[in-house]
Design a protein that fits this description.
It is built from 6 helices and 3 strands. It is mainly alpha-helical. It has a 3-stranded antiparallel β-sheet with strand order 1-3-2.
């Protein structure tokens, strides 16, 4: 981008900033994450899975939604790498992914709706994980 010369010079040295701008694929990754969270039900499911590990049947009851609808949302969240699953016999359990994007989105949801993470309420000491550690 060093060959770029903008028609108007506003004294902001934009050529240097443009050189540091992430590529289209990186922006597409972020856009895909936000697209997954553009649905209120998916946001609620994701938030729940940040605090517990659950199966489709229980999520269905908690969300007052059908199991197929829950499964659809879980596939979307899993394809965005925001949640992970594990099988235990015939049951599949879901929880939020232990990744920086998932943690950031969890915090962002709570800040935007001005709620406190249940794991952080009323404790000044070390926090217990919101769900039991599971082998991967």
């Amino acid at each position: 981008m060093s060959d770029l010369h903008l028609p108007h010079d506003h004294g902001q040295a934009m050529e240097h900033r443009l050189a540091a701008m992430p590529n289209r694929e990186e922006f597409q990754t972020v856009s895909n994450l936000f697209r997954q969270l553009g649905d209120e039900s998916r946001l609620r499911i994701f938030w729940l899975l940040c605090h517990c590990e659950e199966c489709v049947i229980n999520l269905s009851a908690m969300m007052s939604m059908s199991s197929p609808a829950i499964s659809h949302h879980l596939r979307q969240l899993k394809s965005a790498h925001l949640i992970v699953s594990r099988r235990n016999g015939k049951e599949v359990y879901y929880r939020s992914a232990d990744t920086e994007p998932a943690r950031l989105l969890h915090r962002m949801i709570e800040q935007m709706v001005q709620i406190t993470c249940p794991a952080e309420e009323g404790s000044a000491g070390p926090q217990e994980p919101p769900f039991p550690a599971t082998p991967r």
